[in-house]
Design brief:
422 residues; mainly alpha
């Protein structure tokens, strides 16, 4: 079976998931939000960024394997190509949230409020970078180049499958684009993460933050890959993908979970013991007001995969891999929740006193306090939005997957992948 067709039941399920997401966003905007609508906009930003980072890390990890002349993943490389193409809708959604801020519809970023910048020397000092010009450059220009490379790699991969003669002609071209993406994407993804995520806490910064955020997305991407491969094998596809391949993916999931924890601990320990006020406030806010999420984040994303995947045999069992993968996708979505929501809530409260519509500061503060729902922790509407975005991501990926042969048999490393053994 070369071509993938989305089963009717799966198609129905994905549309149902997207429907849940749209309903959740609609209820958030029209019923369960405060006057500033920050719960709606923050939910949209949170999920757009999370799944865009997952798509980018699929592209980045794919390029790493191409440059390394790796062959083990070749059978299912179409899956990573399909994931990476989600960059297009993801980046457009992030740009839309940025546009909403420019038009005054949302107030997610403290640095976007002129009155706050005028009164705050730290924000004023960062204003040459923290502004919407750079925000849209990171989203549309940098992200556009990422998407162009993902399309180019996909095109060369398909051409190789149609016209290739096992002479590395197309693969050499792919290595050029992959090498460029590793350099360009490595630098520009950091700038994008600083603007999209880190700048919601505009007084705070961390030199490790881009690494931390991207590794979080990488683990979620590998976890989604494992679950998708197991599902597709159950449907009769990828029969040559064996426990050897899943074992390697499980090892990556285990190893990067430890690396993520190293990043988590390094940020916490190095910043906390230095006792620099404008830096430690980031952790103090989350420790004092979000202790369950703060420690739960470490429990789900480190303790669980470490204890379960430490044994070799657990990385070769479908049930165990599916359970840990599902927990890690949710856990790293929760990680992004904790990165974004406290800073956005702080901005909402800070802007409550800057009234431009005749309401008193007290009235605005009251409405800002009402918006705490969905900020102290994910509620049903946040979970519904996550389900909707997950359905959208999978639907988009499956549609891309069906547009080419699932197994690229003319890839020069295809035979190596067939006989992969660990």
């Amino acid at each position: 079976m070369k071509q993938f067709e989305i089963p009717t039941k799966l198609n129905t399920l994905l549309f149902a998931m997207m429907g849940v997401g749209l309903l959740s966003l609609g209820l958030t905007y029209f019923v369960f939000d405060g006057e500033l609508q920050e719960r709606f906009w923050s939910n949209l930003l949170h999920n757009s960024i999370f799944f865009t980072v997952v798509a980018f890390m699929a592209l980045f990890f794919y390029c790493c394997n191409i440059v390394a002349l790796s062959g083990w993943y070749t059978q299912f490389k179409r899956l990573w190509e399909a994931y990476s193409l989600f960059l297009l809708p993801g980046l457009l959604l992030i740009a839309f949230v940025g546009l909403s801020g420019m038009l005054g519809w949302s107030h997610l970023y403290h640095w976007a409020d002129p009155a706050s910048v005028a009164e705050d020397k730290i924000l004023e000092g960062k204003s040459p970078f923290l502004n919407y010009r750079w925000y849209f450059m990171a989203t549309l220009l940098f992200g556009g180049i990422w998407y162009f490379i993902s399309r180019r790699l996909r095109s060369l991969s398909v051409q190789e499958d149609l016209h290739g003669t096992m002479d590395y002609k197309y693969h050499r071209k792919m290595r050029v684009f992959a090498a460029f993406l590793l350099i360009f994407g490595g630098f520009t993804s950091a700038a994008a993460i600083w603007l999209w995520v880190m700048s919601v806490d505009a007084h705070w910064y961390s030199t490790l933050f881009a690494w931390y955020s991207c590794v979080s997305g990488l683990i979620a991407m590998v976890a989604l890959t494992i679950m998708t491969l197991i599902y597709l094998k159950a449907k009769g596809y990828y029969q040559n993908v064996t426990l050897e391949h899943l074992h390697d993916l499980g090892k990556y999931m285990f190893a990067f979970s430890i690396f993520w924890t190293y990043m988590w601990f390094s940020q916490y320990m190095l910043i906390w013991y230095a006792n620099v006020g404008e830096e430690t406030v980031y952790f103090k806010e989350r420790l004092d007001k979000y202790p369950v999420l703060f420690w739960g984040n470490l429990l789900i994303n480190f303790v669980l995969p470490f204890l379960v995947l430490l044994r070799n045999d657990t990385k070769r069992k479908y049930g165990t891999l599916i359970f840990v993968s599902a927990m890690l996708v949710f856990g790293h979505w929760l990680d992004y929740f904790l990165m974004l929501k406290p800073g956005i809530l702080h901005t909402t409260h800070a802007l409550a006193g800057h009234s431009h519509d005749g309401h008193s500061a007290t009235e605005h503060a009251h409405h800002a306090a009402e918006a705490v729902g969905g900020f102290a922790g994910p509620g049903f509407l946040e979970l519904g939005t996550f389900i909707g975005f997950l359905g959208f991501f999978l639907f988009f990926s499956y549609r891309a997957l069906r547009n080419a042969n699932m197994e690229p048999k003319k890839d020069p490393y295809y035979e190596e992948s067939l006989h992969h053994h660990v």
